[in-house]
Amino acid sequence: MNNLGIVKRNITRADKAAVEKLSRFGVATIHEAMGRVGLMKPYMRPIYNEAKICGTAVTVLLQPGDNWMMHVAAEQLQPGDVVVAACTTDNADGFFGDLLATSFQARGAVGLIIDGGVRDVKDLTEMKFPVFSKAIHAKGTIKATLGSVNVPVVCAGAQVNPGDVVIADIDGVVVVPAAIAQQVADAAEAREANEGDKRAIFASGVLGLDYYKMREGLAKAGLRYVD
Amino acid sequence: MNNLGIVKRNITRADKAAVEKLSRFGVATIHEAMGRVGLMKPYMRPIYNEAKICGTAVTVLLQPGDNWMMHVAAEQLQPGDVVVAACTTDNADGFFGDLLATSFQARGAVGLIIDGGVRDVKDLTEMKFPVFSKAIHAKGTIKATLGSVNVPVVCAGAQVNPGDVVIADIDGVVVVPAAIAQQVADAAEAREANEGDKRAIFASGVLGLDYYKMREGLAKAGLRYVD
Amino acid sequence: MNNLGIVKRNITRADKAAVEKLSRFGVATIHEAMGRVGLMKPYMRPIYNEAKICGTAVTVLLQPGDNWMMHVAAEQLQPGDVVVAACTTDNADGFFGDLLATSFQARGAVGLIIDGGVRDVKDLTEMKFPVFSKAIHAKGTIKATLGSVNVPVVCAGAQVNPGDVVIADIDGVVVVPAAIAQQVADAAEAREANEGDKRAIFASGVLGLDYYKMREGLAKAGLRYVD
Amino acid sequence: MNNLGIVKRNITRADKAAVEKLSRFGVATIHEAMGRVGLMKPYMRPIYNEAKICGTAVTVLLQPGDNWMMHVAAEQLQPGDVVVAACTTDNADGFFGDLLATSFQARGAVGLIIDGGVRDVKDLTEMKFPVFSKAIHAKGTIKATLGSVNVPVVCAGAQVNPGDVVIADIDGVVVVPAAIAQQVADAAEAREANEGDKRAIFASGVLGLDYYKMREGLAKAGLRYVD
Amino acid sequence: MNNLGIVKRNITRADKAAVEKLSRFGVATIHEAMGRVGLMKPYMRPIYNEAKICGTAVTVLLQPGDNWMMHVAAEQLQPGDVVVAACTTDNADGFFGDLLATSFQARGAVGLIIDGGVRDVKDLTEMKFPVFSKAIHAKGTIKATLGSVNVPVVCAGAQVNPGDVVIADIDGVVVVPAAIAQQVADAAEAREANEGDKRAIFASGVLGLDYYKMREGLAKAGLRYVD
Amino acid sequence: MNNLGIVKRNITRADKAAVEKLSRFGVATIHEAMGRVGLMKPYMRPIYNEAKICGTAVTVLLQPGDNWMMHVAAEQLQPGDVVVAACTTDNADGFFGDLLATSFQARGAVGLIIDGGVRDVKDLTEMKFPVFSKAIHAKGTIKATLGSVNVPVVCAGAQVNPGDVVIADIDGVVVVPAAIAQQVADAAEAREANEGDKRAIFASGVLGLDYYKMREGLAKAGLRYVD
């Protein structure tokens, strides 16, 4: 049996307009708009603070210490794609550096999400190629064992299918299934509008206790004020 | 029995002059001035490098995945307070974001120390609302279960009582019991003066071995120089 | 028996020209030039992003919570040295701060690599004294138990002998044995030249698959393209 | 949008004969038979050494600190099922104890895999109810927020769909998709037969170098024997 | 200022009858009876599976790599006491072994809870001296720096005051403040009785959904059953 | 340059008599006898409680996810050897199982120390082949990249040279350089004799405070007894 060694060429990417709309919102907003699901684990951090990504996923399943599939993935990239790299085991080697970034950028990719390590961080920062990773590690990798490209993967605790929208900013990384991208974008828009109003209200000194009418619920739950 | 669901309204805050004086010193200095106690664990990190806090603690005991008590705490805040949020279990959800920060800031709070996650970090940075946390995580929280406000808590390994002074900077977070705040501030001042002198001495090439008269002690302990 | 309490005064430092040449290359390049060995674990991070070190190792073996040996090490420093501090057990206390940094800098040291904690990070950053550490921690240390200076140590998973060249940048920390410093520097130079060419090629859209002639190997390994 | 709060009642369980056949093999063998995929992370450990599970997955998506959905899942259990519980965030609370185990056992469930904590371990051991978990923790949970039952989940890094076969023993936990259960069972059987032969051969002193004919490959890769 | 170097000789131990009553219940039951507070973190594990402790706390605050205060604590022990050892920083050295255990046992101590390491585990197991620790580590410690005995400490995330009741079993470690020991014991007794009934009910096939009347609440929260 | 791909055939093993003598003592005793150095990190745990190893090291440097070198190492084994396997990066894959154990046992090896994962733990336990590892993991490995055999390695934080004596028991793993094996064995013997006496003394109620004459030192350090 062989569940590895597969490259799927034709994937259905999320609708471009939905991706564009999702790019206007932050990760926290989109995660809320989806009903509080879809987040990667918080150990995924940007290599520089301003890093921000919104694109359609080309997925890669790596083997530990081996970045062969990253090269295979490069050929499958289209403008607007983000590479989402998982690994068959926990491994923080430096699977990715400035040369692969140059190649990915030449294909129009907008960033990398990797449940592993990256290196050449100074170059990547200068190139403004955003990467969210588990680690920064100079450790080199080999090209010897097959993984897969564009199969469903689990990356940093989140299920990612090829073509899904992946959004990343300083708050983390969220995955929006392609099928509901437009719906989530609309929900995020509604939520965002609402937030702006709230900010002004809370700035004026109104308490969440009153604005959200929490006092009754708290009392019912048994909250006791003591002196 | 019910050890949760309590909000203490009247707490004794540390003396304002002592707080002001403590605000002039760094965390390392204050920790030394107290006899090397009172530090939180080093996983507590600022969300931006320049973040600095010195204020009187309003404590919150959270339940995992639930930020209801943060809203209850907001009402108890007075100018100069810092919210110190602990949790009944390890949990890195995003209990706090820009809206709560707006509310806290409107009440005069000077920052947040949370043994959990925060989100909306870009907004918080722009608002210059300093936060020290265990994680940055977009994960949303609910409002369903009671914790407490202004009870003694253990936050990141440190005991914090309501009204204690909490000082945070890039070196970490230290807690000064209200009762000894003035005494610690005085000790910190004495220590700081002393440090300035030392810096010049060491810059001139004098060794700590000589300045601190360590050579005899080292020899007595058996230190051997070999070629 | 006594394996501790030793200070070796005369150590053979790597050739100055080799050190100078190594200083021109990044950690990832040097690690590759050595055949992918010599790296410390990726938990070693710079206290500020621009930190960069290249120098000859003066090694220190610390005891937990005790920085006595740091003072002993100071006397052994020569211009161009980097202090590499290991500990007899896992410990993240703040073994090092601005006063020791002043002393080290006065002796000509170019930085510190420590498998432990540091403090006074704001001062160290202003002094431009680069430090790579496991943690930032205000926790103070004592001066009571002997360790050693200039003995072989294991620091963050890497073997370091006194006099070895240690190079550190945002990608991590690499150790080059003194005996092969020139050879590694030459190999790094060759590799770097080669990299520059590649960057332009990949920027033009050539794929690694073609440039490295990977297609045959991948097919032979059984890679299948599906639609 | 609402991705939570769903209970799927009719799921397609893997073929009973395939499950029975898979139950004869260990986790390592099955993982190899699948082409080295499908494993959960190694932090998943049995609560007692002899614990062994092979059953069809009823999946649960929990909220942190909340085990409401475990009760909902109980009703969906059929004889031979194993409950696979994931959580929307990292949380090690004690979601499961002897009462739920009694209920699960009464329904014919054969065990629990939980990316969280369990308690009442002494009782569970006496009941011979096998559990593989991330932690043992007495921390109690509430019943306040909806998760889901029988939706696809990511548990300890592995994708699990309802009805998949889950096998667990002292070597870890592996997930076999229902659709390939029979095929994997057959491959495992073939592999196991083969292993028995090998054990005798290696016991007689034959080296893997010779048995697997590795010497040529090693020489070609450049292996050098030195004295 | 000096917050360390203190030995409090006269402490108020929890009532003997309450301690005896608490010893009949498990950690999970007692934690629930207290309203779900008082637990140490789940990394605290017994050195052998059958280890069980119930006693009154003599607290120790250790310095990293230094077990001097363990000897000081020994003199303060009375029959029925359990030593609860915290440390001023994270440190897993082997602070405790068979000799100290012999000494503690000679004084009537019933066990040790230590947020650090222990060694001589084989001997401790044979002596049936129960220990719950963060680590097993052969690393030796020194006797050079003062900590304190019988001051309030934070051990594995829990506040412990001298004289509190500490109960430990395979589910973890829980701390009951001396002042409420009797009350908690009574609540635990009530809870336990209740549990026995429930076990039989669930064994008969009754679901928690029905027994706890959860269906209405779930429906109200929006739970949807789909096919 | 090529620092990998080397197999050293002729190594100098520690003196047999010294190894035999060291086998009589526990890890904690030997570590103390060496002056408190030589320990591996405490995450190294036995796969079964009774596991105990004392032998001469044949070292292996593995690549992540690749156990090719384990087979190369097998040929270098002599009766009484213990395999000490390090990896070029952090990796917990299952590098070792029952077949390699059979092969190692056939060559006379007495155990395995591996800074990685193992599998087939049930078989290994039945074979009574002792293994100390970082993890238990079913994850399979490949045979594609060269590492080395019988070169100096860093394993779980300890430097190990081929031929060194490695002793492992439930307290951890300690490495004794071949050159001082006899000296350490003698020191351990002296220490052990001494311990037996002490155990009886402490059992009689004598305090360490008095036996070790600590009271004066404590008083001098400033210890204060309060009521």
Describe this protein's structure.
The structure is a homohexamer of 227-residue chains. Chain A is of the alpha/beta class and 227 residues long. The first copy, chain A, is built from eight helices and 13 strands. In chain A, strands 2, 3, 4, 5, 6, 7, 8, 11 and 12 form a nine-stranded mixed sheet that branches. In chain A, a hairpin with a 2-residue loop joins strand 11 and strand 12 (172-176). In chain A, helix 2 (27-33) crosses helix 6 (181-203). The longest helix of chain A is centred in the last third of the chain and has 23 residues, at 181-203. The mean pLDDT of chain A is 96. Chains in contact: A-B, A-C, A-D, A-F, B-C, B-D, B-E, C-E, C-F, D-E, D-F, E-F. Strand 13 (224-226) of chain D pairs parallel with strand 1 of chain F, so a sheet runs across the interface.
